[in-house]
Amino acid sequence: MGQTEQRAEGAGPFTTRLTWHPPGGGTAVWESRLARRRGVLAVRPVGAAATRHTRADVVSLARLGRLNVIAAIAFIVGGALFAAGAAVAQFGSGDATECASIYFAGGLFFNTGGYVSLLQVVNAPRHVAGGEGRLVTRRWRWWSYEPTRVDWLSSFVLFAGTLVFAVNLLDSFLQGLTLHQVNRLIWTPDVIGCVLFLVSGHLAFVEICHGRPCVHPRDLGWWIVAVNQFGSLLFMVSALAAYTRPATGSLVNSDIANWGTLTGALCFSLAGLLQLGEHP
Fold it and tell me: With pLDDT > 70 as the criterion, what percentage of the chain qualifies?
């Protein structure tokens, strides 16, 4: 006897939660983020009042734990370095090259966090269609192409955003640029990276809220997504304020640009700290 699917939830082509009846009876519930971050799947046997969680095997749990710690620490350190760079720029305690160097170091940690977040999705335990309600571990992979999975798409867009920021950070070392070149080579990648971060955050909300607006103050995962998205919004405000006006050669507002970067970066560090608690 095969499984009987009860309900699929999500948004558009994305499925973020599946509820079905395993062959042995009862109800099984797979949630994308819960399985990916915690390595668990909820199962309620027939007649049981409480729901138990079927965990992935030891290999998956160890793998998820390592990746989670690496990604969390990368965002903590990356955010701290970005905040330090913004503080140096705001309070004038260093020159432009020093600020660019601090930002670039932070960008490398953001690159690491973005890629490891993608690895978490690529190597997450998967639920078995038609199974008894369990998660299985696949072989290790360094890459996959799964654009119909909202968790993969969110992580991929986040990683792409960190790479675009790397272009912005590298170009900031260039000397003797005209105002047009500054806006084209430094400001434009900055804005594109911020847009990609915001898109990634929106997709993360789609995943955790199953396609509907939601507020879950008791859900650690929701807080991580919300704090990251607020940080991305502050980054966007900072980027818009950092546009160099051709008529005057000055930024739209340097104070907003620096404080937006500093507070946004601290949001990513805070989200990284929270992520340490969202382990298998």
Answer: 90
Q: If we measure between CA atoms, which residue out of 126, 134, 125 comes closest to residue 22?
A: 134
Does a structural domain hold residue 250?
Answer: yes
What three-state secondary structure class fits 201? helix
Q: Which domain holds residue 37?
A: 4-55
Q: How much is the pTM?
A: 0.91
Tens-digit pLDDT profile for residues 77-106? 999 999 999 999 998 866 788 999 999 999
Provide the number of structural domains found in the chain: 2
26 and 77 belong to one structural domain: no
Per-residue model confidence as pLDDT tens digits over 22-48: 777 778 888 889 888 888 888 777 665
| Helix, strand, or coil (residue 197) | helix
Contact of 216 with 273, CB cutoff 8 Å: no
- The string over 108-118, giving b where at least 16 C-beta atoms fall within 10 Å of a residue's C-beta and e elsewhere, is bbbbbbbbbbb
- Shared domain for 90 and 227, answered yes or no, is yes
Judged on CB neighbours under 10 Å (0-12, 13-18, 19+), 27 is: middle
